[in-house]
C-alpha cells in the first residue's frame, strides 16, 4: 500500500500508471481536512456563512482514492491539539471533537488519525516527549477514547461505510443545505443496496423534533450517538426505534447539540 500526501490538485495520483497516473493506492484529502477544520474554528453562530466548507468535499470525493487525514501536521509547530482548535467552553470543545470523529468516519474516504487525538491529548505533539497517557485516567478523556473505540467497532460492522468509498453510488445527501442549523445528514450505501444514515449537528443547540429525511421506509435504530453520557455527552437520545412514514420518507428525531448520530435500518 502506498499513500501520497499531495496538495497541488494534480489529477491522477491514484490512477493506474498504465492509464497515465502515478499508481498510488490512496491520497490524503488535504482539501477536506482544511475546510472542515476551518469550519469548526468559526464560532457556531457564524458557521451558517461557511456551510460550504462542510459540504464542498463531496463535489470531488470520487476523483481520487482519498484518505481523510487528521495528521501530525495539525498538532505541531504552535497549532495546538485538535480539541483546542474549537470555540466554546471545555465541554463544547470535547463534544465538537466527538462529533467530528463521527462525521469523519461516515464521510467517504479512509481514515487517518494521529496518535493522541483518540483521547484528546491536551498538549501538541513533540518528538522529544511521549504521549500524555495519564490523561486516560480522567473521565473526559476516557469518554473520548471510548467513543473512538466504538466508532471503530461499528465502522468494521457496517459495509455501507466503506464498500463504496470511491463511487458516488455510495452516498446520498439527505440534508445538505441547512446551514442555519449547522447540520448535515446523508446516507451511505453498501454493495447490496443497504443504506446507513449519518446526522451531524455542529450547533450547540439541540433539535427536539427535527423532520429528518430517510432513504427508505422501515424501522431505524440509533446505533451511535456521540452525545452519549458514556462519552461525556449530555445524553440527548432517541427512542430505540424510529419508524419512517412510507408516504413522506421522514421522521421526527431528537438531534443532540454538537453531536453525530448514526441510524441503521433494522
From TrEMBL:
Alphabetized Gene3D superfamilies for the sequence: Glycosidases, Golgi alpha-mannosidase II
Domain Alpha-amylase/branching enzyme C-terminal all beta, first and last residues per copy: 173-265
Coiled-coil stretches: none
Annotated InterPro entries: A-amylase/branching_C, GH, Glyco_hydro_b
GO cellular component: cytosol
One GO biological process term: glycogen biosynthetic process
Listed SUPFAM superfamilies: (Trans)glycosidases (SSF51445), Glycosyl hydrolase domain (SSF51011)
GO molecular function: 1,4-alpha-glucan branching enzyme activity; cation binding
Protein's recorded name: Unannotated protein
Organism in which the protein naturally occurs: freshwater metagenome
Amino acid at each position: 500500500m502506498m499513500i501520497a500526501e499531495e496538495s497541488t490538485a494534480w489529477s491522477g495520483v491514484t490512477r493506474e500508471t498504465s492509464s497515465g497516473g502515478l499508481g498510488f493506492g490512496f491520497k490524503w484529502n488535504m482539501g477536506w481536512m482544511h475546510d472542515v477544520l476551518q469550519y469548526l474554528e468559526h464560532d457556531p453562530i457564524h458557521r451558517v456563512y461557511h456551510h460550504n466548507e462542510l459540504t464542498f468535499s463531496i463535489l470531488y470525493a470520487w476523483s481520487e482514492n482519498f484518505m481523510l487525514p487528521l495528521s501530525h501536521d495539525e498538532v505541531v509547530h504552535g497549532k495546538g491539539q485538535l480539541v483546542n482548535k474549537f470555540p466554546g467552553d471545555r465541554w463544547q470543545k470535547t463534544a465538537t471533537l466527538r462529533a467530528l470523529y463521527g462525521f469523519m468516519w461516515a464521510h467517504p474516504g479512509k481514515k487517518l488519525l494521529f496518535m493522541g487525538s483518540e483521547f484528546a491529548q491536551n498538549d501538541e505533539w513533540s518528538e522529544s516527549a511521549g504521549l500524555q497517557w495519564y490523561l486516560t485516567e480522567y473521565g473526559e478523556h476516557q469518554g473520548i477514547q471510548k467513543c473512538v473505540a466504538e466508532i471503530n467497532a461499528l465502522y468494521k460492522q457496517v459495509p455501507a461505510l466503506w464498500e463504496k468509498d470511491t463511487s458516488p453510488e455510495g452516498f446520498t445527501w439527505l440534508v445538505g443545505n441547512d446551514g442555519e442549523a449547522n447540520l448535515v445528514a446523508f446516507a451511505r450505501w453498501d454493495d447490496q443496496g443497504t443504506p446507513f444514515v449519518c446526522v451531524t449537528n455542529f450547533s450547540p443547540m439541540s433539535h427536539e423534533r427535527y423532520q429528518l429525511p430517510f432513504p427508505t421506509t422501515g424501522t431505524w435504530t440509533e446505533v451511535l450517538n456521540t452525545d452519549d453520557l458514556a462519552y461525556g455527552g449530555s445524553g440527548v437520545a432517541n427512542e430505540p426505534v424510529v419508524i419512517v412514514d412510507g408516504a413522506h420518507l421522514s421522521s421526527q428525531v431528537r438531534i443532540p447539540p454538537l453531536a453525530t448520530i448514526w441510524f441503521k435500518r433494522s
